Amino acid sequence: MGQPDEPRKPTVGYLGPAGTFTEQAIYSQPDLAAMNHRPINSIIDVLQAVESGEVDLGLVAIENMIEGSVTATLDALAFDTDLFIQREVIIDVNLNLLVRPGVTLESVERVRSYPVAHAQCRRYLADHLPGAVFEAANSTAEAARSLGETDDRPTAAIAPLRSAEVYGLEVLAADIADHAENQTRFVLVAADVVAAPTGHDKTSMVVYQRSDAPGSLIGILGEFAARAINLTSLQSRPTKASLGQYCFLLDCEGHISDEVVADALRNLRMKTASVKFLGSYPSASVDHHDHLMNQVEVRKAAVWIDDLRGRILS
Description:
Elements: E1 11-15, H1 21-27, H2 30-33, E2 36-40, H3 43-52, E3 57-64, E4 68-69, H4 71-80, E5 84-92, E6 96-99, E7 110-113, H5 115-119, H6 122-128, E8 133-136, H7 140-148, E9 155-159, H8 161-167, E10 170-173, E11 183-190, E12 201-208, H9 216-225, E13 231-238, E14 246-253, H10 259-271, E15 274-282, H11 292-309
Parallel strand pairs: 1-2, 1-3, 7-8, 7-9
Antiparallel strand pairs: 3-4, 3-11, 5-11, 6-9, 6-10, 12-14, 12-15, 13-14
Helix pairs in contact: 3-4, 7-8
């Protein structure tokens, strides 16, 4: 009698190649580190691979502490795919100037990197490489890989330390970002399934206005304020349907299984043209309000209303 087949190991897609911060974020999560990993060329390709079933999960950057939102991720989740966020992962970001072995700072003529990473190192580049020409790459690791595969000695790459290890490069200067502290937030996405509540959760959604009328945004925000739900993020994005039309991407504390959160989404759906649910998932933030008290107050209020209704003359 043969041995039973081992369960299939899930595959998580990420912005490749090997050595990206996204790969580093995967290895910060023991369960994701144990999965199969598939590097993919772009963020939108990662998300589409999850939607098509080519990979089981996808991890993509959504926000950087210095540069702000990753609009490619926001727009793809809002307009181009139907996926649910499963968790968020936050890691420290460390940028370094990498070169071919033996290259000195004086011989560097070009700097290659992902534009966001390049922007975070403006001060160092202005002070030490003022004449260097910038070359954009699809990712920091792609910049390092392309450098490692050639003998392009006048070019340096801005990339993580892991990229130096993977592609045989030397660290010419470490920690060159303008801000000593920097973090990036990633989201893990899947199709069709909503993460289970943990009591320390976040819910994300896209709210489309029915019309650009006075007070429409206040009406949206009021649904959360009336229920004492803390909003952790509010951003506007053009709908791409017409000039001047915007939607709002919101994150709030709590899970859709919480009655107060569900009630807020229910009212928003009734009062606006559309609400796209992006997921309820464990929050990685340490600064998280306790929303369980809201649940207690909701139950107390429901009992009170039921008591009053029970006194109505029949």
